[in-house]
Amino acid sequence: MILQELQKQVLQLPIAERWQLVQAVLTSLQQETGSQVKSSNLSRLRGIAKSANISNDADYKEDYIAYLTQKYQ
């Protein structure tokens, strides 16, 4: 089976089964390469996804209301 055929079949699976497949592939890669993610590597990434603009829930609600108002006018 070629890679493209396999990809096509995988994309037809339900999402839960695709997640199981991803986990199985990751586990096998970790076992074969002997690599384990070290906690020090993770600590260096801490905060990488933080937003520069910290807004509160009220701001998000106002933005969402404005978006919906504009969308349905």
Topology:
Layout: H1 3-11, H2 15-33, H3 39-45, H4 57-71
Give a description of the structure.
By secondary structure, the protein is mainly α. The chain is 68% helix and 0% strand. It has a domain at 1-35. The radius of gyration is 21 Å and the shape is flat. The relative contact order is 0.05. The model has no long low-confidence stretch (mean pLDDT 81).
How many DSSP-defined strands? 0
Which geometry do the CA atoms define? flat
Query: What composes the largest sheet?
Result: none
Number of H/I helices: 4
Structural class by helix and strand composition: mainly alpha
Strand content: under 5%
The N- and C-terminal alpha carbons lie at a distance of 52 Å
- Uncertain runs are none
Secondary structure: helix percent: 55-70%
The helix-strand sequence is HHHH
Radius of gyration: 21 Å
* Average pLDDT level: 81
Descriptive labels:
73 residues; flat; mainly alpha
Give the gist of this structure.
By secondary structure, the protein is mainly α.
